[in-house]
Amino acid sequence: MFKLNFGKFLKRKSGEALEEANQENKARPKLGFLSLFRKKKKEEGKGIEYFKKEVRKQEKKRAIVQDRRKKLSFYLEKAGLSLDPRWLSKSIFNLCILVNLVISAFLIYHFSTTLGVTWTTILLSITAIWVFAFVLMLFLFWILFYVIVDLKIFKRRVDIEDVLPDYLQLTASNIKSGMTIDRALWYAVRPRFGVLAKEIETVAKETMKGEDLREALQKFADKYESVLLKRSISLLIEGLDAGGEIGDLLNKIAVNIQENKIMRREMAANVTTYVIFISFATVAAAPVLFALSGILIKVVSGIGGSLGGVTGAASSAGFGLSFSGTGIQYADFRIFAVVSLLITSFFSAVIIATIKKGSAKSGFRYIPIFAVITVSLFFIADKVLGKLLGVFF
How many domains does the chain have? Predict the structure, then answer.
């Protein structure tokens, strides 16, 4: 029955195609019946190929989007954030729209009330904001988001490295008491271990689902860019493969990590002089010197203004002395000083963190402290020196 119906269906379709070709042949008597039939089939074949190409393009785009979302999800998971990538993208996009709306409303109010600019200029300005400023703002928001997440990942990595020796020693004690390695890892978890405790819980859940312990530990080690963690997990996996005494191995790893920490502290203590020098130069010396330079600009400008009348007499006497013209304005110098202090604070905090901790990322928490202290001290020194030297000049 099915074959019979399918044959009827083919006959009907072929009959319809022949009828269409016959009609086109009547409309175009110059072309033959077979030529029109072949042309129709060729056009249908081209349409199918075009449809297949479009489907491939859409699948490729969908695969790229899904890959980006997976990478972003993994990146957020490393930071301990359970956020949906779609919700995150929409939130940042909506935030940019909100900021642009606020800026546009302010420009409309400011231009129309204060400056009296025409509506054409206002519309052009708003269009420029929504085209260029929106893209720039979206780019900056994403950069800021990635910086914050990267710092959070770095903090989690540092927390894991700090408690890793104690955890390994507890695991070694559990193994020596007769537990298996997976149970020893699970029962060594304590709330004070923080991030490491959560990660070990994840490893234990994966092993309970049937995943191999070595693969779960390796996945945990690859999750964080920590050389210390990767080496420790690699030694543990090699010990499991070799079948040696895991308890003694974990104790030796823990002792080695503690010795490395002691060596780092000794190295940081040896370079304390450089840290003190850089901190003093950035926090104390630079703001006072910039303030003194600003007072010097004020004094020189005041002397030049008071001696402006001497220019005519000096010129008549044959001297080429002149106090005319405009030099550096104090307002411009103050902007330059603040920007220079902020840049100096940034690089000083990064250098100090690199010297003490061995990583520039740990210095980002010092940047706001250095910036606030240096700028505040600059304005304080400017006021104090202005009053002290104003008595003499």
Answer: 4
